[in-house]
TrEMBL record:
This is YbjN domain-containing protein. Gene3D superfamilies: 3.30.1460.10. It comes from Paractinoplanes abujensis. Residues 210-341 form the TY-Chap central domain. Residues 337-362 are annotated as: Disordered. InterPro entries: TY-Chap_M, TY-Chap_N. Residues 31-155 form the TY-Chap N-terminal domain. Coiled coil: none annotated. The lineage of its organism: Bacteria, Bacillati, Actinomycetota, Actinomycetes, Micromonosporales.
Length: 362
């Protein structure tokens, strides 16, 4: 297979072929959730009585439609913190939790609906700001393992006071700070003469490090500030684009920006799979597909010398399209798991004899 660059179609074979850090998706996703839990634990003790933290699995990305899986945390007087997690009464038919999922909630420490005063139809748990680490762990595992969020980037959150006025806070890892469920990465809103060009005006000089210029592009595309971008332990910027998870990595030697995405995981590497990936790669105008361990990745390198923001934008746009198109096609032929496919989102209620599946990779 060849690795073609988004800059002029040149090949850069060998630089990206055996990339052990991109192969371990489980570790990357796990670390992202740990960063989210730590950020939430750090936030809770700083909030005054009356403050709320609302966390929602973005239905525009997960395909859950009118089913909104959410957890709301509220700070009360005396350092008391209560959290509410949506129950089946708040979910439409077909997206309600089965008995095993409800048992998972109880095992995590949630009281059934109505037990905690004021919980109504939601599951409730009471804690304190001094026990923020424990509560953050419970909330994180609920969103990840029970509600099926594949990555914190698929969460939107809002921190506000009792009058619904926004409260400024540090970012919750890769979750998106959003007062509504609209917005996010919108490639159609960007053009050469628009916001991106203005944001890069001060970064046109060659003395500006490549990493800084890349962060400016990604932040502008994500409609956020550069200092709010989250970089994981591998040095990768994680961005959510629709139902796809895209990572952006900056390399120094040679200067290179790699845009890559997990297309399919837990897939069995076979000769037929390798042949299919080779055929698809040969038909791609830029980039390549490859299998590392049990994960199929798509990768598009962008050369860092004479870096052009439009090349990175193109790479992200192509990568998003690839992820949306190829995960279904390859899953139907080779099985495995899509990052957030129909079979991996929260399932309709099942009988006890049915196989129980919650969460994604962890």
């Amino acid at each position: 297979m060849t690795a073609e660059s988004a800059e002029g179609g040149e090949t850069n074979e060998g630089v990206l072929l055996d990339e052990p850090t991109t192969a371990d998706l489980r570790a990357k996703v796990g670390e992202a959730w740990r960063e989210f839990a730590r950020a939430l634990a750090d936030l809770l003790p700083t909030l005054a009585p009356g403050a709320h933290v609302d966390l929602t699995l973005d239905p525009t990305a997960s395909g859950t439609g009118t089913a909104v899986y959410s957890v709301s945390i509220r700070v009360l007087d005396g350092g008391v913190v209560e959290a509410l997690a949506i129950g089946n009464a708040g979910l439409p038919e077909g997206y309600r939790m089965d008995r095993a999922s409800i048992a998972d909630l109880v095992a995590l420490g949630w009281s059934p609906p109505g037990v905690l005063a004021g919980s109504g139809d939601s599951f409730g748990v009471s804690s304190t700001q001094d026990s923020a680490n424990r509560l953050a762990t419970v909330v994180t595992r609920t969103l990840r393992d029970v509600y099926g969020a594949p990555h914190p980037a698929f969460l939107v959150y809002l921190v506000h006071d009792e009058n619904d006025e926004p409260i400024e806070s540090a970012p919750l890892a890769t979750a998106r700070h959003e007062p509504s469920l609209d917005g996010g990465l919108d490639l159609d809103d960007l053009d050469d003469d628009g916001a991106l060009s203005a944001a890069l005006a001060d970064a046109a000089d060659e003395v500006v490090p490549l990493e800084e210029r890349v962060r400016t592009v990604v932040a502008t595309m994500s409609k956020t500030a550069t200092d709010q971008l989250q970089v994981d332990a591998d040095g990768d910027i994680g961005i959510r684009a629709g139902s796809a998870m895209v990572f952006v990595r900056v390399r120094d030697n040679p200067p290179l920006v790699d845009v890559f995405s997990p297309i399919l995981t837990e897939v069995e590497p076979t000769e037929q799979l390798y042949v299919k990936l080779s055929e698809l790669t040969n038909r791609m105008p830029i980039g390549r597909l490859y299998c590392a361990q049990d994960t199929v990745w798509a990768s598009i390198p962008v050369f860092g010398r004479n870096f052009q923001a439009t090349h990175l934008m193109l790479a992200v746009q192509v990568m998003t399209g690839l992820a949306d198109e190829l995960d279904d096609r390859l899953h139907g032929e080779f099985g495995g798991k899509r990052f957030f496919g129909e079979g991996d989102k929260p399932s309709p209620a099942k009988s006890p004899a049915d196989e129980h599946r919650t969460g994604m990779y962890l």
